[in-house]
Amino acid sequence: MINNSARIAVIGSILGSVQHIFYRSLDKQYPARDPLTISKKLFIDQTLCTPLIIAVFIYGLGFLENKTLDKINKEFKDKCAMIFLVDCAVFVPTQYINFKFLDPKYRLLFTNMVSIIIHTIFSNQWKNKITITIKVELYRQLQQKI
């Protein structure tokens, strides 16, 4: 079985290709940098590209870890919403900067630099089985004891 870094590299290669095509198409369709156009790009990015990226990330890692489809489906159901919320918190501002200030030829490089950080965080959370829900529940239990 391949190690975690190699799995992330494989998933990153797949996602990089998808994002390259997606952002080139998005820039051709919406070349302007005004607030309305940036808002459209952000909306399209978060409603079309992000769910695809999350699915490829979770299912891809699951298959590379030799997990069953049932187990991957459960992990997708358990983690998808949290990953989407974190993605929105990180990538909406990231993509705003990207769409507003960066030349399209640097768009994917900038996004991938941020993605490396985020995928490392997600990967470590995935590997260590620590979720926000568990942390909140532990905090509540501690509060009840105090």
TrEMBL record:
Similarity-based family:
Belongs to the peroxisomal membrane protein PXMP2/4 family.
User: What InterPro entries does the record tag this protein with?
Assistant: Mpv17_PMP22 (IPR007248)
Assigned keywords, A-Z: Membrane, Transmembrane, Transmembrane helix
**Highest classification ranks of the organism:** Eukaryota, Metazoa, Ecdysozoa, Arthropoda, Hexapoda
This protein's GO cellular component annotations are: membrane; mitochondrion
Please list the GO biological process terms of this entry: mitochondrial ribosome assembly
Q: What is this protein called?
A: Mpv17-like protein 2
Give the organism, scientific name.
Answer: Aphis craccivora (Cowpea aphid)
> Pfam families, from UniProt?
Mpv17_PMP22
What domain of life does the UniProt record list for this protein's source? Eukaryota
Q: Which ranges does the record mark as transmembrane?
A: 6-23, 43-61
